[in-house]
Give the backbone structure.
Amino acid sequence: MSPDLAKPLLQIDRLVKRFGGFVALDGVSFHVMPGEILGLVGPNGSGKTTCINVISGLYKPNGGEVRFQGRSVGGLASHRLVHLGINRTFQVPKPFLPLTVRENVEVAAAYGRPAEGPSDIEAILASVELDGLGNKTAAELNSVQQKMLDLARALATGPRLLCVDELAAGLNPVELDRVAIRLRDLARGGMALLVVEHLMGFIDQVTDRVIVLNAGREIFEGVLAEAVRDPQVVEVFLGAAHVG
Amino acid sequence: MLRTKALRHTLFILLPVIAVAGLLPLAYSNQLLLFNFVVFLTLAQGVNILYGFTGYLPFGYVGFFGVGAYGFSLAVMHLHLPPLAALGAAALAAVLLGLVLTPLLRLSGAYFAIANLAASQAMFQVVSNPNLTDITKGPYGISLAGVFAPNLSYGVAVAILALTLGTVIYLRNSRFGLALLAVREDSVTAAMAGIDVVRTRTLAWQLSALVAGLIGGVFAWYVSVFYPETVFSPEFSIFAIVFALFGGVATITGPILGVVVLYGIYNAIGISTPQYFQLIYGALIMGLVLFLPNGVVSLFRRWGIDVP
């Protein structure tokens, strides 16, 4: 085991993000290890997507720190974070519609500067089951295929950390299983994954550990099986028990 | 594969266009008309570089053309540069204006178009200011009779057209062109593909400024007598945009088709019977915007014919 595996790949420390008077992230701290799949769960509006948006450079943090491979990267432009090895998928993917599926991945492979040399575009397409669709335009894909194309775009940049924002929503059970296996494969290859998801079955299937967020703070850290027994977590998801 | 495609486009589009533009004056005596065709072929491709590949519609595109014309003229008048060197000043003037106007790229859609239009009008007002008569000859216009050389300047215009077409062929067949289209489609996803969005956009912006500045400089050289109204006329922007849209942007052949057909019609009937011309032109533009927003070339695509 290389010594790097003992150190966190991503370290979030008291991260704060405000939108005007609204505090979306209120001092969140957590870390992700190489090869680990960390789930980020919580009710709507708890700051999960905001967290990914800050990590991927869409938003600049208002406080706290994002450390990637020991280096402070909070507030760097997205494309620079991509070059460092951070990538993500989008809840609502916006692929380059008039370009072909292959061109969509090709441009990411060319500009994403993957560390392990040029990506094998055909292999990436095959891994997300888009092989055979390479010459179709992205506009011709259905929404699940567009999600897979978004994943392929992220993979083509050779990320070390991949943030996955609600990839499972809208997938049928068979597709869910395949995606879960695919994500586990990626982690086994050493990639760290941060998975935001509402489907608890999927979270249970893929994650090693979860962070539960509520109102911009983490309220639980551990395995999902313990999270569902945590009174605070239960209260956030199901509401407080009625007395009497 | 991209390289063989680029070679094919060079052989079957660039070379024939340049050969026709270069040789036609030998067979056809109205060189001024042919020169105007070359100017609009270049400007329409310049609009194509910006609008087709980045989505910014430059309603003040003529600003680059005008400062190119004046950059050329000032270099000839005050620095006594030979015309070919003065073209360097034309290019520099356009690129400098592009640099100053780069913050406009923060705007989008109609806001960018309006701001760009205003910027070109501001340049016109600066150049034609009577208080600058010592430098720009103000509203009284420029006369460069000393360097008048219609045949040579026509040849240089054709060379600039060749350069411009070469640039568009490169954009159509390169990863850089692909990156531009990616940014045009969605800048957030493009950034997550590792593309430096600001740098990529700025490069396309400067390329299109350079093209207009160079052809503006040659225009000043070719006509050698002109007024500020001539080289800052909004008609240049509008014509170039309409020609590019008619044929179809983000293609190589679309803007060429637009110039040949529409500027052809304009010269055939627009001068003899302007009222019919305006009617036809107006109806054509309305029909295009409503039914063929991606230009005539998209019609062929719909029928399954791939047009470069």
